[in-house]
Amino acid sequence: MRVYAAMVAAVAAAWAGGAGAQQPGGGMRKPQIADTIRATVYADNWFELYVNGVLVAVDSIAFIPHNVIAVDLLPTYPMTIAVLARDNADPTTGMEYANTNIGDGGLILKFGDGTVTTGSWKARCFSRGPVGGDRNNPRVKDTPLPADWFTVGFDDSGWGNAREYTEREIDPKQPYYEHDFKGARFIWTDDLELDNTVVFRHVVTRPPDGKPRPDFSNLNNVVPQGPPPGAGRRPPGGRPR
After folding, report:
1. In CATH, what number is assigned to the domain containing residue 196?
2. How confident is the model at residue 8 (pLDDT cuts 50, 70, 90)?
3. Does the residue 48 lie in any domain?
4. Total structural domains in the chain?
5. Which of 7, 94, 177, 178 falls between 20 and 30 A from 41, CA-CA?
6. Residue 35 above 50 pLDDT?
């Protein structure tokens, strides 16, 4: 059984051809799960994540309990990341818990290629409230969200940078501590409490970890080569050991 597993691993490695997606003769191989990177996101309270204009993750819990979302991505560089993040807030008052409290936001993200949130990311607020922190007469100020805010070609050159916050300032809940966010920073706009809807954008020109990765961006326009017989399959009688 162990000999069979070793043979399968060797065949699969040879078929993968190292880091490249191209095969001898110019064909493209099918991507494997080993070609993906893990994206891990913690938001206070909710987010949508786009990569190269494609929606890849949506927070499954709109408010509480706080949670972490982790998904596998097939990266292509340059990689444009866009995140819509929302602190829970009443749409007319900007407050929460039956209009008795002003909440605060926060976002932290880490990809398996070493991409992390820092103050170099672009950030802009699109909903703020209660304006001036007025609890007695709370109201919000909204700015229309551009229809193409998540696309690769969107012009964010006029946006300011995100502001970094410490773990103590954000006070993340338990799920945050159960995941690897080493090297990443919590980010938001300059106003952690009153800015309730924020868009972040960042472009990764090459893998930060320096590891070469295949480019599968043209996968939908070709007929990729499958693995040779036996590669990636279980041996007769069960799982390889």
Report:
1. 2.60.120
2. very low
3. yes
4. 2
5. 94
6. yes
